[in-house]
Amino acid sequence: MHIPDGFLNNDTAGSLMGAAVVAVGFAIKKVRSAFLEKVPVLKARLATFPDFGGGGSEMSFQNKLTKYGKEKMWKMATIGSLIFSAQMVNFPVSNGTSGHLLGGVLAALILGPFEAILVMAAVLSVQSFAFGDGGLLALGANIFNMAVFGALGGYYYFKFLTKNAKDIKKVFLKSAFVAAWLSVVFAAIATSIEIALSGTKALAVVLPAMTLTHIAIGFMEGVITVVILSILIKKNYKLEIFNKEKAYEE
Is 117 in contact with 24 (CB distance < 8 Å)? Predict the structure, then answer.
């Protein structure tokens, strides 16, 4: 799934880098509003400055990390480490491309869709810069495919599957499996189209190779996602998907 450098032309890589930057920036804005709160702070004035009747101190505000933000950051770090480890296990596809588990839907259901984008983007950036897993110029494409298309898209496909359910908990694991599986397949299709648009390989060649491989990988993704979610539910772990008091509007 990680696209190496040289597989995308400059136009395609540049466009996807721009799209990834916009998506990550939007996710940061959404998450930041939930993680920080403004608190009043009294600041003493310097004696060298004249006091025009305001007293010896003035009121200002600064951002402070909320309790929710502290807890969520620890969760993001934990899930990020899990996904990082899972993604380091690659399955060769063809001509230098590879397949692996994504973890995007798992992260989105546990953390929330925009937190999942940030976690996936961080994981992919570390892999690219530190381990050479995915090209630097193709980083935008990899973030778009796996963080935006995979995590965010998979999350909202899950929401679509469960929108008419009277009790989401009854269809939760089944819907999570389908969403996780399809997120991998659709991300593979997006990767194939980008490679074809760049003129690197014909769509008739790359699409079957990537799709067929990721149908199997997606099945594994679905199973692993369900197993982890089942364990967390049994331990009464608070999943963000069940959080009725959302910290931000999706």
Answer: yes
The answer to whether the CB of 82 falls within 8 A of the CB of 156 is no
C-alpha–C-alpha distance, residues 88 and 110, integer Å: 21
Task: Transcribe 83-128 into DSSP letters.
Answer: HHHHHTS-EE-STT-EE----HHHHHHHH-HHHHHHHHHHHHHHHH
User: pTM here?
Assistant: 0.84
Pull the structure tokens for residue 114.
């925009």
For domain 10-36+66-242, give the fold.
Arp2/3 complex 21 kDa subunit ARPC3 (1.10.1760)
**Residue range 116-155, pLDDT digits in tens:** 999 999 999 998 998 888 889 999 999 999 999 999 999 9
Q: Which residues contact 126 (CB under 8 A, 6 or more apart)?
A: 84
